[in-house]
Amino acid sequence: HSVVRNALFCLETAVGEKENHVYTKALMAYAFALAGKEEKRKALLASLEKEAVKKDGSVHWQRPGKEPEVDLPYYRYRAPSAEVEMTAYVLLAYLTTQPAPSQEELSFASLIAKWIGGQQNPNGGFSSTQ
Known about the structure:
Elements: H1 2-15, H2 22-35, H3 38-51, E1 53-55, E2 58-60, H4 81-95, H5 103-118
Antiparallel strand pairs: 1-2
Helix pairs in contact: 2-3, 2-4, 4-5
């Protein structure tokens, strides 16, 4: 369809820009995964992996210039909704590939899922609206 083709052309043009925000890269990686553009998906995921926060056996992404987490006893830090959302989009990009994600991609995805699971509130929900 011409609308989808034009939208993908717009995204392919935008991917070449130097200063793409982490959230933008996460959304584009998922969009290219859905469109079956494997090379673009892999390139964006490789770029995102360089910006990942790897901590306590889990992986997530955060906004640039974010304040450091407060480490207090009896307090569990919960990430802002934007960070939960962008990390979830990266997870979707890892899992949305044809024919299927590689074992390496699945292993990395499990580290992302671990972090997302840790963001659940006591009722099983998240701070994110997505």
